[in-house]
Automatic annotation (TrEMBL):
Recorded superkingdom: Eukaryota
Source species taxonomy: Eukaryota, Metazoa, Chordata, Craniata, Vertebrata
The name this protein goes by in its record: N-acetylglucosamine-1-phosphodiester alpha-N-acetylglucosaminidase
Keyword terms of this UniProt record: Disulfide bond, EGF-like domain, Membrane, Repeat, Signal, Transmembrane, Transmembrane helix
The species this protein was found in: Crocodylus porosus (Saltwater crocodile)
Statement: the UniProt record of this protein carries the keyword Plastid: no
Annotated spans, Disordered: 390-421
Extent of Polar residues compositional bias: 390-400
Sequence intervals crossing the membrane: 344-367
């Protein structure tokens, strides 16, 4: 705080009371605020410096630029936290600004104020709205002596409703709310939770393992993919469990392997089915029974290895034996069923027909030869000589007669050779 005489020399002096505020980091601690908060200039709102300072959480607040006393319109060029709030349209007035790099820019100033500030070692200065509007608030408390009387009691002095305010506040964060994942403390974001990281609390970080590439990082930690568990999703589901959080129990039978994600079964050799609950049918073997036995005579093979040299357990052997006997019996019945009565009648009829045809052919052959022989005997007839030569005039003795008869009888009993003409 200070008290100075204005002007300092040879003229009628008056006392001036004021405050000096030193700001070491104006880029992050200095702001120009609209009256009452964001949008105050567009609505021509007016508010006390105290009210606006509460919106901006100001440690030090001072009334800022000029404004229209009748309409409340902000005057001059007003830029608030990078937003163009008001364009003066070429009207020149006292100006003050701060660049993005933190350097200060001043416009026109009053000579008297300039001389005073020069005495205080100020090298850049600007005249702000003064008179009855001049108001200073420190840590939320009015620190100046307003000139206006209070409307509710004329014996007291009250600050005037003004327009823009210069605000010195704690260093701000970018963004001010730390993306909703932290608190801004002296310009630095203090992230909440165990997994938000970064200067503005915008990064989720679950550690160097990055959830072991088996999950995603959330604000509550690693959210593991199905089939994985653990704080960093590095542990696979235990045997016979699967799914989210490994909470579901596998149902695979006969040593089937359970997929840790979906719970589907991979059957070992010799079994098939959705749950590996079925043995391979006879004639097939291998994983999921996808291979065909290659044994001679289509004999069954080992359901696991496909080997043809196998010995089944006694129970199964008895079943196969009974199955073989039953099959043989069925085949015998089938063979017998082929020779039914109708079949026998049909075969007998065919044989009888063939026999009849054979008999007819034989008779025709006999008749034909008999006819041919009859023709041959018609061409050559045998007659006794006495019939050919007539009655003999000679008289034979009995002895000679008997000799003749015997010879004749012999001649007739033996066929004579037929000369071929």
């Amino acid at each position: 705080m200070f008290v100075s005489d204005i002007p300092p020399k040879d003229r009628k002096q008056r006392k001036v009371y004021g405050h000096f505020t030193f700001v070491r980091n104006p880029l992050r601690t200095f702001s120009v605020l609209e009256p009452g908060g964001v949008g105050g200039c567009s609505t021509r709102w007016r508010a006390t410096v105290e009210e606006t300072a509460r919106h901006g959480q100001c440690l030090v607040a001072q009334n800022g630029g000029y404004f229209n006393m009748d309409t409340g319109e902000c005057l001059g060029n007003v830029v608030s936290d990078g937003r163009l709030v008001k364009n003066a349209g070429g009207l020149q007035n006292a100006q003050f600004g701060i660049r993005k790099d933190g350097t200060l820019v001043f416009g026109l100033s009053l000579w008297e104020m300039a001389d005073f500030l020069k005495q205080q070692g100020i090298i850049n200065a600007v005249n702000l709205d003064g008179g009855g509007s001049a108001t200073l608030v420190l840590n939320g408390t009015l620190a100046s002596y307003p000139s206006d009387h209070c409307s509710f009691n004329g014996m007291w002095r009250c600050p005037r409703d003004v327009s823009t305010v210069m605000c010195i506040h704690e260093p701000t964060c970018e963004p001010p709310d730390c993306n909703g994942h932290g608190h801004c403390v002296l310009g630095e974001c203090q992230c909440i939770g165990n997994f938000w990281r970064g200067p503005n609390c915008s990064l989720l970080d679950c550690g160097p393992s990055n959830c072991s590439l088996h999950g995603i990082c959330t604000e509550s930690g690693c959210l593991c993919d199905a089939g994985w568990i653990g704080s960093n999703c590095s542990e696979a589901c235990a045997s016979r469990f699967y799914g989210d959080g490994c909470a579901q129990r596998c149902l695979c039978h006969n040593g089937g392997e359970c997929d840790p994600v979906h719970g589907s079964c991979t059957c070992p050799a010799g079994y098939h089915g959705a749950l590996c609950e079925q043995e391979c049918p006879i004639g097939q073997y291998g994983p999921n029974c996808q291979k065909i036995c290659e044994c001679e005579h289509k004999c069954p093979c080992d359901q696991e290895t496909g080997s043809c040299n196998i010995t089944y357990p006694s129970t199964l052997q008895n079943q196969l034996s009974r199955a073989g006997q039953c099959l043989a019996s069925q085949m015998s019945v089938a063979e017998k069923s082929l020779l039914t009565d109708r079949t026998w009648i049909f075969i007998t009829s065919i044989l009888a027909l063939l026999l009849g045809i054979s008999a007819v052919g034989y008779l025709r052959l006999v008749f034909k030869r008999s006819s041919e022989k009859t023709q041959e005997s018609g061409d050559y007839m045998y007659y006794p000589l006495k019939e050919m030569n007539g009655e003999s005039s000679h008289t034979y003795t009995p002895a000679s007669c008997e000799t003749y008869r015997e010879e004749d009888a012999q001649d007739q009993s033996q066929p004579e050779a037929i000369p071929l003409l």
